[in-house]
Predict the structure.
Amino acid sequence: MTVDVSALHMVLTGDPGLFAIVRLSLVVSLSAVLFAALIGVPIGAFIALTRFPGREGAIVTLNAMMGLPPVVVGLAVFLALSRSGPLGSWGLLFTPQAMVIAQTILVAPIIAALTRQTIEDLWVEYRDELAAMNVGPAGRVMTLVWDARFSLVTALLAGFGRAAAEVGAIIIVGGNIDGFTRTMTTAIALETSKGDLPLAIGLGMVLIFIVILINALAWGARRAGERYAG
């Protein structure tokens, strides 16, 4: 009970150490979602609206990549950014930027796959209408993305949820350095092993709140989309 009270006190009083970890976690995850959206939405829309040899294989591969093992992604990024790796000259290993790269790789397939399915469903609905209006490829993409904006917000929130809960990849490429690359998930794992339960529980409370908030926003986006469609 004392541990729970201490954890709650840390959250309510805005403990600097706790909220520095939360701040870094949000910056890394939001940055990853932004870059993943810039990559995933165009790829998903392209696959949805284009017929090309190997398209079915591309869809299967994209869907499979939604379940990429985080530790494997972390290892791949680690090898790429290490001194002997092809990107070692960038000097990004064990930095927040490396964590963003790893999370982007994990989140981009999720956003791309959900975008592909959403845009493809809308294309079936609006194909004849857009063809009759002689709308070009770029116009089709813009029209369908705008019409699917509420569903795409849900996809982005799903990607953020994956990023915020990630631990395996970022602990490999970030190193869990105190005050520099320590996020909520890596700090919870470390502090629990050290026996510092108040900080671990406090971070867990904040993480659960963020997850609930994400789900509430996703639900609100779906409801807004249903009202708009209606």
